[in-house]
Please model this.
Amino acid sequence: MTAQRVAVLRDLLEFVGIEGERLNLVWVSSAEGPRFANEMTEFTEKIRSLGPLNWNYQWAVPDSELRAANPSK
Amino acid sequence: MYHAIKERVTELLSTGEVKGFLALKKDNGHIKPHLYVSPDEIDQLSIGDGETAGDARYPLTKILTMLLQNHSGEPFGILARGCDQRALRALAAWNQISLEQVVVIGVACSEELARACNCGLPYPDEWLEGEQIEPKDPRPVEWEAKSPLQRLDLWRAEFEKCIKCYGCRNICPMCFCKECSLESEDVVTKGEIPPDLPMFHLVRALHMIGRCVDCGLCEEACPASIPLRALYKKVNDIVETRFQFRAGIEQTEQSPLHKIAEPPAAI
Model:
């Protein structure tokens, strides 16, 4: 079920414009320490290579700046 | 107007075949949900035509769910459009209601309403009023035509309008959970507007897997006019493409994602 849900979520992320690669699902047992470390390192590297989300920053103006620009409001 | 429906409801109520009939009522110029218990008020019955055809819609199926839970075993009737019929089936598949005691009186939507709703199935199984209108494409094609970057920008702008009123959840006939993830502080930070982007909306979208019947009430209810329907249409599209399932089409089927018997397919 989880595998299928994650597949659906990945498609959904693509739909809202977020790269599907940013979502990863692996099963690691508590006895597989090195594998866990490996998976984590690989995934971190992948995210790093994708870089930050390509938000359009014009939507991300902090409230304080907005208020400064429109003191009447 | 709607003579056939009024006659049938009068018959149901006077013979005692149903205890009450859930429909809409035009009262002092306003349309509101109403439970008809005697044939006296039947003249005020409305199928939701305010200024234009079908512009007054209510989650009648959600009200019916509450009714049946408090009066189990008693027969009720309900006025249902295509979307209501799908909701009834999906609710039955999720064991929220039993359809044995429910008498469904169908209304097929007008061309105007089907177009306004962009409805994928604008008629129930059987109907007393209206005619069969050609279904529209149930996929959010206008969104899919955009590039991923455009979609990211547009969705962010849309999600940022959210005032976290929970209107989409409260009006949804398929939102019947007693505990809601959207109220969990692990997922949604308390006291912050807009809610965590895009978590809030994607959590809800993910929970619509195999449930959303595409009635469009969420989008109608949204005070910030977020195009929620496009999001849930996409969820339905993904589920249909991957699992050949559409909620509310089969009477007893839950989505393949909610069945435990099948072993999971590889990703």
In short: The mean pLDDT of chain A is 82.
